């Protein structure tokens, strides 16, 4: 079961208003991306993540150049490390890019695949359950605050206050 972030473009106020508005929603999985692992630059170009692409190229080039100075298998290890790290963060960076463009996250949907997540999300719209749950109010602070005691007691080899001599 995967978690999907439901992103809506800035001009869509109600996703259930029309089929066109519902078609413009984007479901972004919160998981490892195999496509981003194998084809990082193509993933970035496909999703039009220009700023992330620039950062990726700078970091990858710097790491590759420093790894090539070490020699042996270091460049291969660096390449795999960059791809692995990027694949774990690719969908989060995609969500960040959309938020920079004015998109907003309107819900979280779960499902074994994107189709099931879409079904659960739109079924929730019909029943009115896609609103985030209300958080309870924080408890009121106690009337008497807890004040740490300062004295000469030894606590696990540490002293509080001035040390006493024996």
Quick tags:
alpha+beta, two-stranded antiparallel sheet, 6 helices
Which radius of gyration do the C-alpha atoms yield? 25 Å
* Major sheet details: 3 strands, antiparallel
Poorly predicted runs are none
What series of H and E elements makes up the topology? EHEHHHHEHEE
* Fraction of residues in β-strands: 5-15%
What would you say this structure looks like, in words?
The protein has 166 residues and is an alpha+beta fold. Helices cover 48% and strands 14% of the residues. The protein has six helices and five strands, in the order E-H-E-H-H-H-H-E-H-E-E. The strands form two sheets. Strands 2-1-3 form a three-stranded antiparallel β-sheet. Strand 4 and strand 5 form a beta hairpin. The longest helix has 27 residues, at 74-100. The mean pLDDT is 83.
Question: What's the gist of this structure?
Answer:
The protein has 166 residues and is of the alpha+beta class. It is built from six helices and five strands; from the N terminus they run βαβααααβαββ.
Topology record:
Layout: E1 2-8, H1 19-23, E2 26-29, H2 34-38, H3 40-46, H4 50-70, H5 74-100, E3 104-111, H6 114-127, E4 154-155, E5 158-159
Antiparallel strand pairs: 1-2, 1-3, 4-5
């Amino acid at each position: 079961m995967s978690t999907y972030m439901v992103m809506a473009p800035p001009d869509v106020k109600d996703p259930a208003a029309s089929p066109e508005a519902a078609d413009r929603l984007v479901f972004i999985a919160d998981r490892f991306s195999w496509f981003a692992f194998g084809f990082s630059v193509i993933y970035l170009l496909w999703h039009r993540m220009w700023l992330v692409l620039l950062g990726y190229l700078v970091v990858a080039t710097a790491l590759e150049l420093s790894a090539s100075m070490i020699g042996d298998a270091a460049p291969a290890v660096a390449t795999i490390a960059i791809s692995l790290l990027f694949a774990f963060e690719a969908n989060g960076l995609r969500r960040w890019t959309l938020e920079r463009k004015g998109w907003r996250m309107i819900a979280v949907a779960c499902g074994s695949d994107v189709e099931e997540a879409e079904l659960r999300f739109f079924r929730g719209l019909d029943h009115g359950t896609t609103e985030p749950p209300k958080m309870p109010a924080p408890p009121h602070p106690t009337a008497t605050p807890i004040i740490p005691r300062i004295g000469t007691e030894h606590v696990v080899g540490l002293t509080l206050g001035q040390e006493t001599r024996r």
